[in-house]
Amino acid sequence: MTIRLPDLPPSSLPLCHTGDVPEGQAYGCLPDEDGQDRLFIVRQGGSLYAWRNACPHIAGAPMAWKRHAYLSADGRHVMCHAHGARFEPDTGLCVHGPCLGSRLLRVALHISPSGQISLANPHLTSLQASETTEKENFHERG
Ligand code: FES
Questions:
Q1: pTM of the entire structure?
Q2: Which of 6, 52, 76, 129 is the S-S candidate for 105 at Cβ 3.0 to 4.6 Å?
Q3: Quick one: how many helices (H) and strands (E) in the chain?
Q4: What pLDDT digit, counting tens, does each position of 46-63 carry?
Q5: How far does residue 8's CA lie from ligand 1's centre (Å)?
Q6: Ligand 1 centroid to 115 CA: how many Å?
Q7: How far apart are CA 128 and CA 37, in angstroms?
Q8: Among 40, 51, 52, 57, which is best to mutate for testing ligand 1, by the most ligand atoms less than 8 A from CB?
């Protein structure tokens, strides 16, 4: 199944720096013309995971209730604040809520040696849902 997504800018556009995403927190990137982040990045267990800001419950629905607020109160899950769906931060799998068993759409990142984060795919206009099962996390080297 192919899910059409809005155009994203080329990978040369910096999203943020690794220092913007502390352990156990999320960071929203690339706000659209309505101020909604197109994607967000989560750091958990020292790894960074990037997801489209598009809840699978209602295709394309933004998930945060305010900027960068993508996690549950206990910080263990990515959470859609519309109807309370909870997702594993590392796999994007919905483990609670109305879209149980569905997945968030993963976004591959490029991280420069200086810690600058950008998109890995310069022509990201659509994603195959099956791609979301791939492990594409990033471990920072100390
Ligand atoms: S739109 Fe996300 S849980 Fe309903």
A1: 0.81
A2: 52
A3: 0, 12
A4: 999 999 999 999 977 999
A5: 23
A6: 32
A7: 20
A8: 57
